[in-house]
Automatic annotation (TrEMBL):
Domain Peptidase C39-like: 496-654
Originating organism: Candidatus Wirthbacteria bacterium CG2_30_54_11
Name this protein carries in UniProt: SbsA Ig-like domain-containing protein
Transmembrane segments: 12-31, 61-86
Keywords: Membrane, Signal, Transmembrane, Transmembrane helix
Recorded coiled-coil stretches: none
Ranges where the SbsA Ig-like domain occurs: 299-392, 397-489
Keyword Disulfide bond in record: no
């Protein structure tokens, strides 16, 4: 979507301004010309001028007065045109993305176009989930405090498919103090891409050995997802991610012939910070696709083993032909480089030859060649030399670790998993392992993979695990390099299983958040009452009328167009359970209640409307004070400690289940009133 800053407003304004400027320029030229010629004629002709002026014609008089009258008319019309343009109430005319739309990448900022310029200093901007980013106004000149174009570029990604809400309040033009409309934009963050197809496809045969594996995606991927892959048999590879529509696995060397390969692609959702290139948090990896294919087969040879890397020094060389062979022609044609002594054995079908040999050298690449000319029993001949290669087991290496380096938000019982490229002496690997800070735990093994399960990490702590050099190999060479990685555990988190209930969006339901929050607390205690029943039992007051500053008393009951204060809500709750108030404005006391298993509701402000202080008079003469955007939420959890939280988790009858920073929570806790239902 192309966002155009210059539109009808600018063109109308320029037209009116140009008309005024043109008239002023015309008048300046007209009257200057008349003055010049009158001065010129006046020299030496004053008597003649008196005679001429006495005989001015009616046309001269009309010309004298018609020009200023026409100029005045155009000036007035231009001025009225500009006044009419600036009298339009500010509102959002277009956005990118559109409301409810799902974005496909982070390559385009969120944009708002207003119908008229708005005051950049007054406009209130709010986003949920909270994320740092850059708000930018495109102004007509750097010193002008108004603009029709606003953009937002986040500093990091959202979770894939997450709903994002941006609320703009106090849209006012620079020449009128009154606020315009408020505007809510909802859109969906880029989704997690899925694999639509792969090449080679699963089951493909005769795949070239210089192939690359491509996974085509249903949507372009972005930094919200991290890709990983495994290849069996083990082959080094890299990713080619130049095309966002596919993920390509590029092998560092040609594949072995006549070999079945399995490539498994996994995807991990992540919160990615653009400036630093770091991952702030990540989800659980999941399999995205698996493709199995077989490379091109050597003519006459159906299969060859061993292949790949890490081959045991005692592994026999086995050739399986696609037809019964003349064994006398095959045995002298087989060459092993480096030269290795051995002997042949054939199966009863005459198609499988096994070469048993003296032990191979370690960490060595062997080449096995079949010279042209070997024959089948029916006369078939191998026309080209067949070449196979493999590498014997070498130095012990760590091929994968988990958690990955720099990972954050790791659970306190997450195991450390270290995979080696070959079989190792278990005790030497365990002795080489260390964890700092130290944490007791236990080891388990699955093949060449060692798992260390801790008794329990501390919250919010960075741990470094290390595998020292010297891990002993069973068949190969001991390790020579140490490997270490670090990760950070998740902060302490308390999260109660509090049911979520949404408030209505129209009528009385739109102002019933205070009642719905109490309804949530009752439902948590096993008491289920509808919003309508609670509202009727609390009782109605006169509707709030902001224009006339009149209305009912929210301290006594539900006040339509505004809401309900704590006294009538507490009285209604006490009909079913026992409600009690907490110390005013004490966040530590509030979170201590949550840590003890008690969700808490608060009376505050919604954080998106302009928090204007309201006053009005009830029918009995009582003066009531309030706030624009009265709102209640239920605190269901937090991360950190009650005395030092880092995030606060909410059941918001309007926004849903969300979380905010403690500073944001305290700002929105407008009345400092909180209640618990026992």
């Amino acid at each position: 979507m192309e966002m155009k800053l210059w539109g009808a407003f600018e063109y109308r304004f320029l037209f009116c301004a140009a008309a005024i400027a043109a008239v002023l320029l015309f008048d300046l030229i007209w009257y200057g010309r008349r003055w010049f010629f009158r001065r010129k004629k006046a020299v030496g002709h004053r008597n003649a001028e008196k005679k001429v002026s006495a005989k001015r014609s009616t046309a001269d008089l009309l010309q004298l007065f018609a020009v200023p009258a026409g100029s005045l008319l155009i000036l007035v019309m231009g001025y009225l045109g500009i006044v009419r343009i600036w009298s339009v109430l500010p509102a959002v005319s277009s956005t990118y993305p559109l409301f409810g739309e799902a974005t496909d990448s982070y390559g385009h900022p969120v944009e708002f176009i207003f119908n008229v310029p708005v005051d950049t200093h007054k406009l209130s901007k709010n986003i949920s989930p909270e994320v740092e980013g850059t708000w930018k106004f495109d102004t007509y000149a750097f010193w002008l405090p108004f603009s029709r174009h606003l953009s937002f570029t986040p500093d990091s990604t959202f979770l894939p498919g997450q709903k994002v809400m941006i609320y703009l309040a106090y849209m006012a033009d620079p020449f009128h103090p009154a606020a315009g409309e408020e505007y809510l934009l909802e859109y969906t963050a880029p989704l997690m891409p899925s694999v639509a197809s792969s090449s080679p496809v699963t089951g493909a045969l005769d795949v070239p050995v210089d192939t690359r594996v491509e996974f085509s995606l249903d949507i372009p991927y972005g930094p919200q997802v991290r890709w990983q892959a495994t290849v069996d048999p083990l082959v080094e590879f890299s990713f080619d991610q130049s095309d966002p529509g596919l993920v390509a696995v590029v092998f560092s060397k040609v594949l072995n012939q006549s070999t079945a390969y399995t490539v498994t692609l996994t995807r991990t959702p992540q919160l990615f910070t653009f400036a630093t290139g770091e991952t702030a948090d990540q989800g659980a990896p999941e399999a995205a696709a698996v493709t199995v294919f077989t490379t091109v087969r050597v003519p006459g040879v159906a299969s060859f083993t061993p292949s790949g890397e890490g081959v045991l020094t005692s592994a026999p060389v086995v050739l399986t032909f696609d037809a019964r062979m003349d064994t006398a022609s095959v045995e002298p044609a087989l060459q092993v480089d480096p030269l290795t002594a051995g002997s042949f054995a054939w199966d009863e079908t005459g198609t499988v030859a096994t070469f048993t040999h003296d032990p191979f050298a370690k960490d060595t690449v062997y080449t096995v060649k079949l010279a042209p000319g070997i024959r089948t029993l029916v006369g078939g001949r191998l026309e080209q030399e067949a070449v196979f290669s493999f590498q014997t087991v070498g130095v012990v290496k760590v091929v994968s670790t988990s958690p990955g380096s720099g990972a954050g938000g790791i659970g306190t019982t997450t195991p450390i998993i270290i995979s080696f490229n070959q079989a190792v002496d278990l005790s030497s690997a365990q002795d080489a392992f260390s964890l700092s800070p130290a944490m007791a735990g236990s080891f388990a093994w699955d093949g060449n993979t060692m798992t260390y399960s801790p008794n329990g990490y501390d919250y919010g702590t960075t741990y470094t695990y290390r595998v020292a050099a010297g891990v002993r190999s069973i068949e190969g060479l001991d390790s020579v390099d140490a490997v270490s990685d670090s990760f950070t555990t998740q902060p302490q988190r308390v999260l109660l299983d509090v049911p979520y209930i949404a408030q209505g969006q129209t009528g009385d339901g739109a102002k019933s958040c205070n009642i719905v929050a109490a309804q949530i607390l009752l439902a948590y205690r096993g008491v289920f009452v509808s919003t309508t029943d609670l509202r009727n039992e609390i009782g109605y007051q006169e509707p709030y009328d902001g224009s006339n500053h009149t209305g009912g008393n929210p301290h006594l009951g539900f006040t339509p167009n505004y809401g309900t204060y704590w006294e009538p809500v507490a009285a209604e709750v006490n009909r079913y359970r026992t409600g009690r108030f907490l110390p005013e404005g004490d966040l530590t006391a509030l979170l201590t209640e949550v840590a003890n298993g008690n969700p808490v509701m608060i009376w505050g402000q919604n954080g998106v409307s302009t928090p204007t202080r309201l006053t009005w008079t009830t029918p009995d003469g009582t003066v009531v004070t309030g706030v624009n955007g009265l709102h209640s939420v239920v605190v269901r959890g937090f991360t950190g400690t009650p005395g030092n939280p880092t995030r606060i988790y909410l059941n918001d009858p309007w926004y849903g289940q969300t979380n905010v920073a403690p500073s944001t929570f305290m700002t929105r806790w407008y009345f400092n009133v909180a209640m618990v239902v026992d």
